[in-house]
Amino acid sequence: MKILVTGGAGFIGSYFIKYWMDKYPEDNITNLDKLTYAGNLENLLEVENNPNYKFVKGDICDKDLVMDITKGIDLIVHFAAESHVDNSIEGPEIFVKTNVMGTQNLLEAAVQNGNIRFHHVSTDEVFGELPIDKPELKFTEETPYAPKSPYSASKAASDHLVRAYHHTFKLPITISNTSNNYGPNQHPEKLMPLAITRAMLDQEIPVYGDGKQIRDWVHVQDHAHGIELAITKGEIGHTYLFGGDGERENIWIVKKILEYLDKPESLIVHVGDRKGHDVRYAIDNSKSEKELGYKPEKSVEDWLKETVQWYMDNKKWWEPLKPVADKQADRYLSTRLDK
After folding, report:
1. Considering 82, 108, 129, 151, which one is annotated as catalytic?
2. Are 69 and 32 in contact (CB under 8 A)?
3. Looking at the domain 186-215+246-279+298-331, which fold is it?
4. For the domain bounded by 2-181+217-242, which CATH number is listed?
5. Is 24 one of the annotated active-site residues of the chain?
6. What is the pTM of this model?
7. What is the reported pLDDT for 338?
């Protein structure tokens, strides 16, 4: 099978490529990535010399490139997206361009080149937020869309486009929405690697507000497995949600990281909260479990411990990226609440 993976140099896309090539070594994968700051070809060193792997630097907003590169492809797995919520608040335009128009380019190319099987990777943030005081409520495949940030609004629009191309042009699609991912090779600007790398160096760790925002943390390995199941077992036209059975407060995550590293909680600095910060996300995996056999492989505690160890063992990978993360952290710390 010939597969096009978009955004395959990013955190989740690169993990998926390695996961898929290990499990299906006979398949051919073309990785299309623009190589923004979040894309890193060092994530793919173990497959770069594989004859069944090819990298193409390019933008999904380039219509001619997208039309050409999808010729002869059997499956498109679409990860490419602008994905940092804070960046979407500072500059929404690129999120609309990449996440909406870029997705439409891929969909159109998929239709024009023979109705290529299309899997779209999305986020649970399209559903908005859940109340803190009703823990029994979780997102399902039937939850109405209610995005709250420019990022989630752009992803919601892309989800709707994918479904529209299925209903209008009979494009064979599946969609997956997932919660907050973590694991190896995640850019150190994100919460977990930011906390890990700064704690390792005894630097202050910014935490939004009181830190009691709840996320359903899913390890990238479980997410990659879920996408595989959606592609190989999912019903065309359907959406599947993949969570980690890992609802935890952000402050719990940071404190657990400090515990694993034997660092003091005094490194935590509470900072001004994000504009329009969603208070809680949680995913109900019931449909994915029943129809696909999906189940997280390990607990959040076990996966988190492995993640901390990976960053401890791979300083050479994240050190070149740290200046970008530190700039972000300094911006957060400028709004510290202990002034």
Report:
1. 151
2. yes
3. UDP-galactose 4-epimerase; domain 1 (3.90.25)
4. 3.40.50.720
5. no
6. 0.95
7. 82
